[in-house]
Design brief:
The protein has 242 residues and is an alpha/beta fold. The protein has a single domain, classed as 3-Layer(aba) Sandwich (Rossmann fold). Helix content is 28%, strand content 16%. It has seven helices and ten strands. Strands 1, 2, 3, 4, 9 and 10 form a six-stranded parallel β-sheet that branches. Strands 5-8 form a two-stranded antiparallel ribbon. A hairpin with a 2-residue loop joins strand 6 and strand 7. The chain binds zinc ion (ZN) (2 copies). One zinc ion binds next to loops.
Length: 242
């Protein structure tokens, strides 16, 4: 029997089979406390200096700083897509999410008057993986994380976004303006299916790491243009400012 090895420190021993981390690495996880900027998810209060002030999502939240054992965990999720890692991340997001995190966000969204067949009021939207990377790794890490998070927060997953395949340095299916606009990052709505999933009124983007917010912004723009009234983000980790 192969001994379990901690994904962060690579040491065997003191690692439960169901846990990707040893006890020491788990104890040292860099939990982010309060207060926290509701808009960008950074510790403290940003006020008018919030780096997310011009971004299209209204709030962001993550339980962990991108530090310590977290980069190794994120990497293991991306490279191997280990279900145990997605489960650990989803459980930690769900257990610590602030009140109202999964609720409808505006006066009109999330009401109980949703018509039959109408888009869901609130749903999780995985940030689409870079298609070349996904093909190489065979893992769609944000989709896996969203799938583990959904039953824990009582929401469905609406995989409505996609990133078109890049051809060389060109992105097929996008105009020149779209290719040049950093805002777009080549994110778009999934089309071409018989019944593409509906865009929810309140979309909660799910990804592994929130770094500059550029990808979350591009996804939020695409969702808002498609009719979402509010877009928020949850990630497992938040990269702190230098
Ligand atoms: Zn360890
Ligand atoms: Zn902020």
């Amino acid at each position: 029997m192969v001994p379990a090895v901690c994904v962060a420190c690579r040491r065997a021993g003191d690692v439960a089979r169901t846990d990707p981390l040893c006890r020491a690495c788990r104890r040292a996880l860099p939990w982010l406390g309060l207060p926290r900027c509701r808009r960008c998810g950074l510790p403290g209060e940003c006020g008018s200096h919030c780096p997310a002030r011009a971004q299209a999502f209204s709030g962001a939240w993550a339980p962990m700083a991108y530090a310590g054992a977290v980069p190794a965990l994120v990497n293991a999720l991306k490279e191997r897509g280990a279900v145990g890692i997605a489960r650990l991340m989803a459980a930690q997001i769900a257990a610590t999410a602030p009140p109202g995190q999964w609720a409808g966000g505006s006066a009109t969204a999330g009401t109980a008057t949703q018509a039959r067949g109408a888009p869901p009021a609130v749903a999780l939207v995985p940030v689409p993986a870079d298609p070349l990377r996904r093909r190489r790794r065979g893992v769609d890490h944000a989709a896996r994380l969203a799938a583990e998070l959904a039953p824990r927060c009582g929401l469905s997953v609406a995989p409505v976004l996609t990133r078109p395949m890049a051809v060389g340095s060109r992105q097929a299916g996008l105009s020149r303006a779209q290719r040049l606009a950093p805002d777009r990052l080549a994110v778009g709505l999934r089309t071409g299916q018989r019944a593409p999933p509906a865009v929810p009124s309140v979309a909660i983007l799910v990804d592994d790491v929130h770094t500059t917010g550029a990808t979350l912004h591009a996804c939020a723009l695409a969702l808002r243009e498609a009719g979402a009234e509010d877009v928020r983000a949850v990630t497992y980790a938040r990269a702190l400012r230098d």
